[in-house]
Amino acid sequence: MTGFLKVDSGDFKREASVLDLSESAAPSSTLGVGKFYASSVDNKPRFVASTGADYDLTAGGGVRVDNVDVDTGIEVVDSFADTVCTGAYWHYVISKGTNYRSGLINACWNPTTNEIQFREIHTDDIGDTADVLLSVDISSDFVRLRAEAASDDWSVRTKRFFIDD
After folding, report:
1. What angle do CA 151, 82, 158 make, to 5 degrees?
2. Which region holds residue 84: left if phi is over 0, alpha if psi is between -120 and 50, else beta?
3. Under a CB-based contact definition with an 8 Å cutoff, are residues 58 and 130 in contact?
4. pTM above the 0.85 mark?
5. For 148-161, what is each residue's pLDDT tens digit?
6. Largest CB tally within 10 Å, which of 111, 116, 148, 158?
7. Which domains are delineated in the chain?
8. Nearest-5° angle of CA 90, CA 27, CA 162?
9. pLDDT tens digits, residue range 12-41?
10. Which secondary-structure segment (H or E) carries 15?
11. Is the dihedral of CA 80, 85, 86, 90 positive or negative?
């Protein structure tokens, strides 16, 4: 075995080939260190990356990123350093009351020139979601998924996947 194992408290136990973790709140992020934990909120095994991203290890990949209160104007739903990868996609659902839209946004970019391209495909609306437009841009070396709303109280729920070179 390589690397290290650090035990901060008495909530770790190894018995035969089983690792027991006491359920807890999400640990804080630490630069350069990823942390496994058992969530006391959803009772699932999770991983917190050094970036602070919190991964549900039962969710089949991707990172859940939501903005459940998008109001009039432009709001950032998700952002990350443009050097993490050169492509990503987001599965999303936009909703407000009885209005729904589901879709996919693909994006690729050049982190050296900050050139970015994105495309959205989506279902037809249930009700009317025309008040919300999604876009992807780069600002200060961060890729940003943005929601532009013409009215208040929209929910944008996403699952983001990185596409590595």
Report:
1. 40
2. alpha
3. no
4. no
5. 999 999 999 999 99
6. 158
7. 12-56 (no CATH), 63-163 (2.60.40.1680)
8. 20
9. 555 555 666 778 888 887 777 777 778 887
10. strand 12-15
11. negative
